[in-house]
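pinned: reference chain
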Amino acid sequence: MNRNNFGNVEGGLCTGAQSSFGMSRRGFLNKFGMGLGGLALADMMNPASAVQAAGDRGILGGTHAPAKAKRVIYLFQAGGPSQIDSYDYKPVLNQRHGQELPDSVRKGQRLTGMSGNQSSLPLAGSPFKFHQHGQAGTWISDVLPHTAKIVDELCVVNSMFTEAINHDPAITFLQTGSQVAGRPSMGAWLNYGLGSDNKNLPSFVVLITKDKGGQPLYSRLWGSGFLPSRYQGVRFRADKNPVLYLGNPDGVSASSRRKMLDRLEELHQLELQKTGDTELETRIAQYEMAYKMQSSVPEATDISDEPDYIYDLYGQEARKPGTFAYNCLLARRMAERGVKFTQLYHQGWDAHGGVKGSMERQCKETDQASAALVMDLKQRGMLEDTLVVSGGEFGRTNYSQGKLNGNNFGRDHHPRCFSMWFAGGGVKAGTVYGKTDDFGYNIAENPVHVHDCHATMMKLLGIDHERLSYKFQGLRMRLTGVAGNVVPGMMA
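pinned: its structure tokens
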């Protein structure tokens, strides 16, 4: 077809050199074609447009299967707690305390730069006693007396493993399903998939123990990555204003704020009509959420109405804003109010030296409150549909980092095996899943990879991890990447 014939074909739209709009055929086709291209590009670049239509129910509009858990509370112990001194009892290490780690056990596996150059790798038994608890006789260290009381509610997994051997990629892996920064966190995926159960509170809330040193925590750990920013976690701080910039400036009334937001939305809508940029809708939604949170957040974080028996349960530290115990109590309040994913971070578990003293301090801060959270949810009838998770980014070595001096020693990073526990939300309570070898160095039975952990958590939430995805840079991205298998042995 030549140019003249092409022009004749389009004659029905523009019968002459000029259209009825005063535009040449060439000009019309150019603008029309660019308009279609722009719409297509906008759709490719902003797949969130479909999400907006789904509203608060999320992109899935419901679950793939009946959900056993409606919400998650994740107690992340940043730094890598020692499984050998908490849940994975290894009497062989005490029997062979001070002896060299056998080559047949290490099998040439890589070590970090902190202990890889040691001329000796002496085995180090736990300085704590272990006893069996609960109907299943689960071994628990004496440094966790409160957790020992709730073992019949727990599924302790001693066969977790990861490829990441250093903190930042390992923490990022547990939080986002990738060692590379920039992916959406699990809370963001859940927010994107299932939406919110409370229009006045964020679906994803983050709480961090105040004044704790240790490995740094970055906001990208609870970020939305390539998902629209509306799905990122909202951090609640232990301050007068729990959420930054939430309050009105001095002299600005609530009615003035409302009028300002209304006018701002009108301007955003005008710009949206011009550009089709759905991130403007995200911005509008965030402004509206902030406005609603001005009344909902103070109510949710005001613990003055909690009875004394609650503080006896969680410990008196729960009265102090910013402590781990306080955050556990807030997590229960968030769960009551429909928050789907509450992420707690507690730093300080990186015990390269002085394992005994470090574990004692850390467990004193977390043991009672963690157990109290499980008991509190159960007594309110909420544990059965609330999934509680506790664990770090990797484990610790069975040998001493540095010189072994009696019970005064450290433990290096160990990604080959570590422990986590799960409670409520459809997990198989009162069980221990997975097993490591006698030296606590390699997994002997039922390994659970990070992707398997995420796939199983999603399954409990009624989500098929292979079917919750987001198109980004031409790929269908998901939390579990191209891997991940649900672990039936962890589920009831």
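why pinned: The first strand starts at residue 71 and ends at 77. The radius of gyration is 27 Å.
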